[in-house]
């Protein structure tokens, strides 16, 4: 008997279930007897909380519905295994459970922290000569995983951001010259500004686009920000500014910490960021005496399956299939990645990176040469990198006017 288990971890995306569908499809095609799903990732596995995916997806119609369902169908977690030396009992428990259910292969769909889990388990398996193999399938709207050209989930978030920013710009423009209005839109991105850079995609022949973009790759100066906005007001009355939630001052303090220095921290040591746009709007209102509006996209940008990129969904699905193929071949401690062959025409190859140690806990940031010299916009090279990722629309399955999703049975 040859069995596989798959889990989802970290922040959800609108196409993460596409990767799950790909894993299931390819695993069954390759002949795995059982394909289990961890409920709430590694945390659920440790509680032996997992399901037989045949129960849901032997019906091909449900598999198509899964692809169109946002967020993590199996649930997620942010659980750090910790060092082998200090938590060996936990590691042994994982392998005892895998052995109990004759599970040979473990696939984790996730970002930086998820690859840390793949790294830790594959290292332990190698050290203790365990039979199981461990594979990572990339996922993150933040697009900050190294090696891969981009991550599944990122393209759809970009499509949502670009679309939403166009709508915000239209809304902000409706007051004409009668009432100067500044909208500051806060977009996810802790240390890397990939998502915020997607706001540049709003610009075309019918839309002037956003007026400024501030990214965490460049230290943020409040005085310069106010002065640059003041200069914009001399040229136009409707201004829309995109900012990353993780922008930091020159003394390495998150701007959102100016409001609350005691931010919550998760198990991986990440501060929960929020409130940046609100702070900037307050400063602009006080300094420039204009109407301001703070807009925070928050989880909307990662759950908008109704605006998913067809390209992104297809890539998520194919990454899942590639992961199941690697598992079938007994590979371990490796991650699927996308290698861009060409941007025009757009073409990628699905490949495998052999050393998970060079991926886990490493963040890929926007190259500084892709950021404008004034540090408040991005260059065309970055726009050209982003544009192919948002192409195509996913046809939703509707009932009574609302998109349908598949969910775990209670």
Describe the protein's topology.
Blueprint: E1 3-8, H1 16-30, E2 34-38, H2 41-45, E3 50-52, H3 54-57, H4 60-67, H5 88-100, E4 103-110, H6 112-127, E5 133-138, H7 154-173, E6 181-187, H8 194-197, E7 212-214, H9 222-233, E8 238-244, H10 276-288, E9 291-296, H11 300-303, H12 310-328, E10 334-343, E11 346-353, H13 380-386, E12 398-399, E13 402-403
Parallel strand pairs: 1-2, 1-4, 4-5, 5-10, 6-8, 6-9, 7-8
Antiparallel strand pairs: 2-3, 10-11, 12-13
Helix pairs in contact: 1-4, 1-12
Give a structural overview.
This protein is of the alpha/beta class and about 400 residues long. The protein has 13 helices and 13 strands. The chain folds into 2 domains: about 5-140 and about 305-360 and about 395-405, Rossmann fold, CATH 3.40.50.450; about 155-305, Rossmann fold (3-Layer(aba) Sandwich). The strands form 3 sheets. Strands 3-2-1-4-5-10-11 form a 7-stranded mixed beta sheet, sandwiched between helices. It has a 4-stranded parallel beta sheet with strand order 7-8-6-9, sandwiched between helices. Strands 12-13 form a two-stranded antiparallel ribbon. Strand 1, helix 1 (about 15-30) and strand 2 (about 35-40) form a beta-alpha-beta unit. Helix 1 (about 15-30) runs antiparallel to helix 4 and helix 1 runs parallel beside helix 12 (about 310-330).
